[in-house]
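QA checklist item 7 of 12: single-chain prediction sanity check.
[x] sequence parsed
[x] length recorded as 133
[x] structure emitted
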Amino acid sequence: MAMNMNSGTRQCATINITPMIDVLLVLLIIFMAIAPQKAVGLDALVPLPHRNTAHDPPEDPVVLEIDTAGNYRLNTSPVANLALAERLTAIYAHRASHILFLKAAPDLEFQTVANAIDTAHSASVDRVALMPR
């Protein structure tokens, strides 16, 4: 508390608010530093609740495998690198869901995987799901 001398003999006690403002500013800086920031990264699709689709038979998934040499296998049948776009276009022309599962060798360069994803997107594939090893 600070003492303030008025005219005369009367003393008046006032509260010093400078330490309170200092504490307020420090707390403000702390809360601004720990406030959650906007997440940056890849967008992920959350699975939707199961709908009753008893009248629609489930479709077999389409799996594209890439081995260490960069050769493609589409549902375990070998596919030439230049014929991949044609095969994918033919498969997805009659399918309701345009989802491709991609399984690549662990020591494969990402450029090969990226080329396969680009080829799949050009063949009307909406979503590419990367399968773990």
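[x] summary fact logged: The chain has a mean pLDDT of 85.
[ ] second reviewer sign-off
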